[in-house]
Design goal:
By secondary structure, the chain is mainly alpha-helical. About 50% of the residues lie in helices and about 5% in strands.
Length: about 700
């Protein structure tokens, strides 16, 4: 990175073509050596003769994307009454100006869904905002998309318990060790049966291989029982080795369901990994199971989240699930949490996003995923039976665990009161003492929540000035949760965080205060808090319009929806999230992924979004297929019509200038196509890619 936070030409040669080698526009001047700028602000696009300066065009792209200036429109409404400007400090005056009624439809779809699909805007106008909003707040009244249900059906781990996920997807090291005759069989009878069945796919140690590989996942020393020649013809085998991607997909798709398992185990580990990108969902799951069974659970989670965002009819619910998961974040890659998170999101988060906050707080507090992530499952009170027994045992004393404050701290700072909520470090310690004994049952009991009274601190505690009498048990923690769930600081913190997510990074105090009062009066009813926000004039104001930048997750989902793309493999599409900096379920810090604009607005990040849009429009994003045939007709009539179709609005002056510059510059067309790793430039795809990468598309 250079001093301005932009990628340098040396870095760019590694990660992208030279077109976007420089991003700093601070001292940029328009002259005969500077070509017309893509997404420039305040400059007339001009045609320049001579050699095309790729780095200058890239600089213009980065600079304008960084601005992302929201468009403010005139106020006017028949139903909503604007708040008075004096209701807030002067910097919030834009929230006292209402959007015209026509702009509210677009605002609703951009802010309360993962982006409009073709036809959604017309459908919303027909339905009406009030009726549509009510249905979004009551997803149980709307039938789910059958196509989504069909796509989710193969992802079997989503419906499993913690125990079933652990049993069905054992560590690969365990399988290989049993196959070598050196591993101890698991005590759990179900897990033992599955490990033996998988290990039986190997015959024995291969002749000529003297030692076990250093990598526990390497199976090079083991011979395979099933031979690939018994499943595929010689031509098919040759195609999988040397064929084109579409040819490999055709061979893999032709494998009968009854032979998928045998095929997966007729390959070496490296071969399985190489073919995953081309395999249909069912076969890819078998390949993953043969390489690393644990990854099946993580892949199912990520795929399901993307598929729901793109295809679900319950869009606001999916946004709410994403919001609350990040609020109560758990890191997927921490040990046993990879088996626990499916039940965590399914049973602790999803059912409560429009319910009472206390129920949501309790469900997350009792979740094995949260208890394991923040280490509360092994927190032992100083005045507990377990601690007294430990002191009497010399060996146990050396394995001291003691009080763990992690959950107590995050419960106060991140989950309820907020960092300015009025608690002290002593409150953190007292809360941690109240939750000693909140633990996890062993594998034989299913790995569910378990309260262990022997680990509980029986002493008196004082939390936020309230005394919790000595001699209590699990009820100590329940008292803390009730105290926090109904605390005014919690009501304000949750309302502020919701408003930051759905209204603006700096929402007006008038709205936050109104939401806070609803929270307190309704006993923390999250649906009513959301309703207060969505029926407010501040939400439908100029201050809220285009005030939020999409996260990478939202951007990718909205691009797929806008182009009406067919997601053939959400597993492959999820790799794009990794590139853009938001791998799902993998935020290691308990804060979760931020929705703040500053978190996602950077020159390199926005450049990557542009390249993603170009690749998607050229059908160069693995796992996604866009039907571009209809674009040919629209673009032939007027390229701007195609941009209007995808944006569901008139393109901004910056976007029009970028498109016109591209249409008039063959060298730029070639470079943009090269960025998308496409063949010869296709005008409709270039226009669509620029629309998806435009400033207005990045905003919500």
């Amino acid at each position: 990175m250079d001093p301005h936070g932009c990628i340098t030409p040396e870095e760019e040669r590694v990660r992208a073509p030279k077109l976007f080698a420089s991003c700093d526009l601070a001292d940029e001047q328009i002259d005969e050596s500077t070509p017309g700028q893509l997404f420039s602000t305040g400059h007339v696009v001009r045609s320049v003769s001579g050699v095309f300066r790729r780095d200058r065009v890239g600089a213009a792209v980065c600079g304008a994307l960084l601005l992302l200036t929201p468009v403010l429109v005139a106020a006017g409404s028949k139903k909503l009454k604007p708040i008075k400007a004096k209701a807030n400090p002067p910097q919030y005056v834009a929230f006292s100006r209402l959007l015209p009624e026509g702009d509210r439809y677009h605002h609703a779809l951009e802010r309360l869904t993962f982006g409009p699909r073709p036809g959604d805007l017309d459908a919303l106008r027909h339905t009406g905002l009030d009726r549509w909003l009510d249905s979004e707040l009551h997803p149980e009244r709307v039938r789910e998309n059958p196509e989504l249900e069909q796509r989710l059906a193969p992802l079997q781990s989503l419906g499993m318990s913690i125990h079933d996920a652990y049993v069905n997807y054992p560590p690969p090291q365990m399988i290989a060790a049993v196959a070598r005759g050196k591993g101890r069989l698991p005590d759990d009878p179900e897990l033992r049966a599955i490990v033996v069945r998988l290990a039986d796919r190997y015959i024995h140690k291969r002749d000529g291989v003297a030692e076990v590989p250093n990598d526990a996942n390497d199976d090079a020393d083991l011979d395979l029982k099933v031979k690939i020649e018994s499943i595929l013809t010689a031509d098919q085998i040759a195609t999988l080795k040397n064929g084109k991607p579409d040819e490999k997909r055709a061979v893999l798709s032709s494998i009968p369901p009854g032979k998928r398992v045998d095929f997966a185990w007729a390959l070496r580990r490296q071969q399985r990994q190489q073919l995953m990108a081309f395999a249909p969902v069912e076969l890819r799951r078998e390949l993953t199971l043969a390489v690393n069974p644990q990854n099946v659970v993580a892949n199912d989670l990520t795929e399901a989240k993307l598929l729901r965002a793109i295809y679900s009819n319950h869009q606001l619910e999916e946004l709410a699930v994403d919001f609350w998961y990040n609020h109560f974040n758990v890191f997927l890659n921490k040990g046993a949490d990879r088996y626990m998170i499916p039940t965590y999101e399914r049973d602790s988060i999803r059912p409560h996003v429009f319910g009472k906050f206390y129920d949501l707080l309790l469900a997350t507090a009792e979740s094995p995923a949260m208890l394991f992530y923040l280490d509360n499952w092994e927190s032992v009170g100083t005045n507990s039976v377990s601690e007294r027994m430990r002191k009497q045992n010399i060996q146990a004393a050396q394995r001291r665990r003691g009080l763990n404050e992690n959950y107590g701290r995050e419960l106060l700072e991140l989950h309820t009161l907020g960092v300015e909520g009025g608690y002290t470090q002593q409150d953190v310690i007292e809360v941690a003492r109240c939750f000693t004994g909140w633990s996890i049952a062993g594998p034989r009991k299913g790995g569910a929540f378990e309260y262990n009274d022997k680990m509980h601190d029986k002493g008196e505690k004082v939390v936020l000035g309230q005394v919790i009498s000595a001699g209590g048990g699990m009820d100590d923690g329940l008292k803390v949760l009730k105290l926090l769930a109904h605390h005014p600081s919690t009501a304000h913190f949750i309302s502020l965080k919701l408003a930051r997510r759905f209204v603006a990074d700096d929402p007006p105090p008038s709205l936050v205060n109104r939401m806070t009062q609803t929270f307190l009066k309704s006993d923390g009813d999250l649906r009513e808090v959301m309703r207060t926000m969505l029926s407010s004039p501040e939400f439908w104001s100029q201050g809220a319009y285009r005030a939020k930048v999409k996260t990478p997750f939202e951007m990718i989902a909205s691009a797929a929806r806008a182009t009406n793309a067919d997601v053939t493999s959400a597993f492959l599409l999820s790799n794009e999230l990794q590139k853009l900096g938001e791998p799902l379920y993998r935020k290691i810090e308990p804060t979760g992924y931020s929705s703040a604009n500053a978190e996602w607005v950077s020159s390199a990040g926005l450049l990557d979004r542009m390249n993603f849009g170009l690749a998607l429009a050229h059908n160069r994003v693995p796992g996604v297929k866009v039907d571009i045939s209809a674009w040919q007709t629209i673009a032939a009539r007027d390229p701007m019509d195609l941009a209007r179709t995808l944006l569901e609005q008139e393109p901004s002056a910056q976007t029009r200038a970028a498109i016109e510059k591209t249409l008039n510059d063959p060298e730029l067309q070639k470079q943009l196509a090269q960025n998308a790793k496409a063949g010869p430039p296709q005008i409709p795809s270039l226009v669509a890619g620029l629309a998806i990468g435009s400033p207005e598309f990045q905003r919500r």
